[in-house]
Amino acid sequence: MSNPVLVCALRGIDAFRALGAALKGWTQGRDRLSTGDSLPQALMALTPEVTFRQAILFFTEADLVTGKARFYYCLRKLTQICFSPSVGESWRCRAESLFSYLQAGAQLLCTVLLIKPGVWSRRLPRILRDLHLEKFSVVGMKHLDLEAAAASALLPCEVQQDPAAVEAHCTYLTSGTALVLCLQRPNAVKKLMDLLGPEDPQLAQALDPCLWRAQYGTSTVQNGFYGSRSYPMAVRDVKLFFPEGLCCAQCQTVQEQEV
């Protein structure tokens, strides 16, 4: 080619769909601005397999070690030089590059689903069946009576600003026994949020009657479920509700968060 190109390795949730949508919008805007070739053009890999093959052509393993992992990667290399290979090898688990993630495939993550009082006692078999169909594994389960402080901590920030709403939610959440599940699957947090739908059952009903809050909820207070809204919140919820640990062989991501 007569001109240089910029090659980027990008990482993100649902990366192929998100990048494809972004490039489509960018291309449409570019076409409106100019019909010539003066503005840059962009191409992307279409599958993880193609991404891996192309990444090997343009990048080394060290190039694709990011953030804190880069520090451990360099430290591992340094200890291999100054001491012995066996010492440096001990850092391998903390110095995984993006090549390793591409080879390993989707990473199993944990999230927390709390089934609110009055719902799980009537609908548990159907809920468990639907979780199985959505490829979730149950790696922790317990029923408990929530204290007011724990119930308040589960509420969205916008709800916590309204004392009346906080009282209504806490009164309901502490009115009976709740069932808490720790669930595991790739992209667990987003998949569970997509399954539950909006906090308001009426809005969920308008979007998709199959959403769980549309099926089981009756109001923004009695909407059937609480789910961890982000991965940091999922880690917090797992530690809160399952301090004794989980029944899965290992949950590496939660362990790393604890370090």
From TrEMBL:
Q: Where is the Nucleoside diphosphate kinase-like domain?
A: 108-248
> Which GO molecular-function terms appear in the entry?
kinase activity
Keywords carried by this UniProt record:
Kinase, Transferase
Q: Which InterPro entries match?
A: NDK-like_dom (IPR034907), NDK-like_dom_sf (IPR036850), TXND_domain-containing (IPR051766)
Q: Does the keyword Kinase apply?
A: yes
Short name of one Pfam family for this protein? NDK
Q: Which domain of life is it from?
A: Eukaryota
Assigned protein family: Belongs to the NDK family.
**What is the name listed in the Swiss-Prot or TrEMBL entry for this protein?**
NDK5 kinase
Q: Which organism is it from?
A: Leptocoma aspasia
